[in-house]
Design brief:
Elements lengths: L2 E3 L2 E3 L3 E3 L8 H9 L5 E3 L3 E2 H5 L3 H6 L9 E6 L3 H13 L4 E6 L4 H4 L11 H14 L4 E8 L7 H10 L4 E8 L10 H10 L4 E4 L5 H10 L4 E4 L1 H5 L3 H9 L9 H29 L2 H26 L6 H10 L3 H12 L10
Parallel strand pairs: 3-4, 3-11, 4-6, 5-6, 6-7, 7-8, 8-9, 9-10, 10-11
Antiparallel strand pairs: 1-2
Bound molecules: flavin mononucleotide.
């Protein structure tokens, strides 16, 4: 079930949706290590930060080879900066650059970026056109159904961005006003799919492996991007593949779920290593300790953020969530994960 975006071939029509704060490189790698995920999209990256070369922004655009094909999502409302950002992302080796036209957060919308671009389709298309002219890699757009129930214009915007050379669009079938309330409108996603020739991906409420298949089979969309369902169950893609192959769905064992969290923690820690080593060479050892402490706090916060979704999928998940939220150190975190997921099979298994 291959699909294509421009010249980029996706081995599977299922991808990991961009999620700010969640789909960091460590999480994306772990998802890719299960089968079935044909595309990962980074967290959104600021075009302002990219053109100014801000380190923190560039970190959001980092990825590893095992994640390919990688789509890097950028947000912004300024045509020249968005075109320059596309060039920067191409030079960083992105396979695809995706434009955020879905973010409803006022902080983004007031800069005429995110979903507020949908209110000015002409300007939105001009931005996409400038980006397409600036790079060779495919430029795609991720949009919502519209700004509010009176301004549902995803089909029109999809046609406009197709006309200026976009290679694909993803539609999350809710308005900005809805945020995450109600349900994603897959009838509208089908309408968009019928309105353009470029591939349309649908997004919203695919939380069971069967939903992924059903949407690809029945909506006219060429693929689906899965968000929250993958935070709860990162195996959702490989389970969808099981169904495609006509096999029964493989249950994920408790130990595998625990292993995922431990691996996530280790990969996040690995990302902080360079930073700590760099400081070790330039600053006195007391500062190195402070940096390491800051890194530990960052890792703990990342684990807390993931666990608020991840623990919803199984028995006693709320207890685990509370324990992780109360953890004060990485040692605490490891102990909590160990005792929740591996208690029945002994401590050596989690090492
Ligand atoms: C925590 C969170 C962060 C998100 N961040 C982004 C983002 O940065 N860019 C974007 O285009 N969509 C973002 N989304 C929207 C998702 O990509 C997706 O379209 C939406 O959640 C609907 O799909 P789902 O029901 O599978 O979660 C975010 C969603 C969540 C839950």
């Amino acid at each position: 079930m291959q699909t294509r975006i421009g010249e980029v071939t996706l081995a599977h029509p299922f991808g990991l949706a961009p999620m700010a704060g969640m789909t960091d490189s460590a999480f994306r790698r772990l998802v890719k290590r299960q089968a079935g995920c044909g595309l990962v999209v980074t967290e959104m990256v600021s075009s302002e930060g990219l053109v100014r070369g801000i380190d923190r922004t560039l970190e959001f655009a980092e990825y590893t080879e095992e994640e390919r094909p990688v789509s890097i999502q950028v947000f912004g409302g300024d045509l020249a900066k968005m075109a320059a950002s596309a060039q920067i992302l191409e030079s960083l080796g992105a396979d695809i650059v995706d434009v955020n036209m879905g973010c409803p957060v006022p902080k983004i919308a007031k800069h005429h970026a995110g979903c507020s671009l949908m209110r000015d389709p002409r300007h939105a298309a001009a931005i996409v056109g400038a980006m397409v002219r600036a790079v060779k890699i495919p430029v795609t757009v991720k949009m919502r159904s519209g700004w509010n129930e009176n301004e549902i214009n995803a089909p029109e915007l999809a046609r406009r961005v197709e006309d200026v050379g976009a290679s694909g669009v993803t539609v999350h079938g809710r308005t900005a006003k809805q945020s995450y309330a109600g349900r994603s409108d897959w009838d509208l996603i089908s309408t968009v799919a019928r309105s353009v020739e470029i591939p349309v991906f649908g997004s919203g409420d695919c939380v069971e492996p069967a939903h992924l298949l059903n949407r690809v089979d029945n909506s006219g969309a060429k693929g689906v991007l899965v968000g929250r369902g993958a935070l709860r169950n990162p195996w959702i893609f490989s389970q969808a593949l099981d169904l495609v192959a006509g096999n029964t769905l493989r249950e994920v064992r408790l130990e595998e779920r625990g292993r995922f969290l431990l691996d996530y923690l280790d990969l996040l820690l690995g990302e902080g290593v360079d930073e700590v080593e760099g400081f070790r060479h330039t600053l006195p050892s007391a500062s190195t300790t402070a940096v390491a402490r800051g890194r530990d706090r960052w890792v703990i916060n990342k684990l807390r953020a993931l666990s608020s979704w991840y623990t919803k999928g199984f028995e006693n998940g709320s207890r685990l969530r509370q324990d992780i939220n109360a953890a004060e150190s990485l040692a605490d975190l490891r102990r909590i994960i160990q005792s929740f997921f591996f208690a029945s099979i002994g401590p050596r298994a989690a090492a």
